Batch of 2 targets.
Target 1
Amino acid sequence: MPNLLCSVCRIRRSKSGGLCATHYRRWLAGEPDWNRPIDTPGRRNVAGEHNPSAILTEADVATIRRRYSDGAATQTTLADQFGVSQAEISKIVNGKAWT
Ligand SMILES: [Zn+2]
């Protein structure tokens, strides 16, 4: 069953337990409104596979930068967790995207 979509947002691919990385993380964190939609600036109908930054929120980017600078995760780990390419993570942590 490849490329299942998140059972909440139906936009992102599911990573764990039928949820995308963002919804899974919110659920794990016990946020009361964890299943609210993901706020995407300039919302698109379909998150483009060819436009990886489209599926990250500003909050995701802040989390990525923090976890990477803390040494809590590698670029590869973050790329897998957030469903984007390692190159995209590299651009984010090096300030070449989402600045
Ligand atoms: Zn989701």
Note: The first helix runs from residue 21 to 29.
Target 2
Amino acid sequence: MQFEGVERPLRAVERAIPEPGPGQLLIRVQACGVCRTDLHLLDGEVEIARPPRILGHQIVGTVERRGAGGEDPLRAGEREPGEQPRRVGVPWLGWTCGECVYCLSGRENLCPNARFTGCDIDGGFAEYALADERYCFELPESYPSEQAAPLLCAGLIGYRALRMCGDARSIGLYGFGAAAHILAQVCRVGGEVADGMPERRVFAFTRAGDAAAQSFALELGAEWAGAAGEQPPEPLEAAIVFAPAGELVPAALRALAPGGVVVCGGIHMSDIPSFPYSILWQERSVRSVANLTRRDGEEMLALAPKVPVRTHVTVYPLERANEALADLRAGRFTGAAVLVP
Ligand SMILES: [Zn+2]
Ligand SMILES: [Zn+2]
């Protein structure tokens, strides 16, 4: 399902199966998650420099073949007869330069030369995809492919955002979609299970009147759910804003206790309206979270089965990708959408 231009539907096209180059895997896609970022790409809010492009950056699939000239040339080529196909996950971070100040300081998520899956590199809204093996993840075996796919962006970016909340014991989640439904489950565990993170209380903020999302949040362990403009029952130690609406930033600041942080988890957001300094005063802060590092991925994918995180997915056949995107935009499902070829 190919992106050909801003505000145009994805189009079903037949393409040749791509040839893996050195270090690349040819992956037969089993499932690919749909992300809010895909809507930003479709709308031109995040630019695709060189269309046509295949979107999709939460790919789960099996390795069909490995390009020659990788780190281990002996493993190049076809699988041995009888060998089990290896399953991998491919995230948004598709390639980094390894040489810049960010790559060299453990912040490859900020690499200015990075290439992103489903944006700069063809992604997983397809039957086959190529990926640089160094950026692929092993996936916990306990997850069927459809359930694993949303972990690869909603889960990983959510996890990075949660890390930015430090030791906050009460967290507001603004926008209860794919990422929040995973995080709410992670927040409820603490200590050894959660890599030393504290157990946290969750307060869910949804669109006004979205009873389905609010009851979904309560089912997943949130202790309170309300509309995004509402004040929570007590000031919160942190808030993560997943919805791409700038007016939620001052709303979240107003919900914070002194010293609290608002973390903006999306790649794009409408303009943030001006607000009085008094709601930032008392050492409150606002920050964003960008992309992921491979370390985030390894940590979250190890943590998910221990929680255990259960992803709620709505599965669409690949050729109905446009319907899945429209349903995401309209908030017609809870949890995450996944495309299956
Ligand atoms: Zn994403
Ligand atoms: Zn770099």
Note: The pocket of zinc ion (ligand 2) is lined by residues 96-97, 99-100, 102-103, 111, 113 (CB under 6 Å).
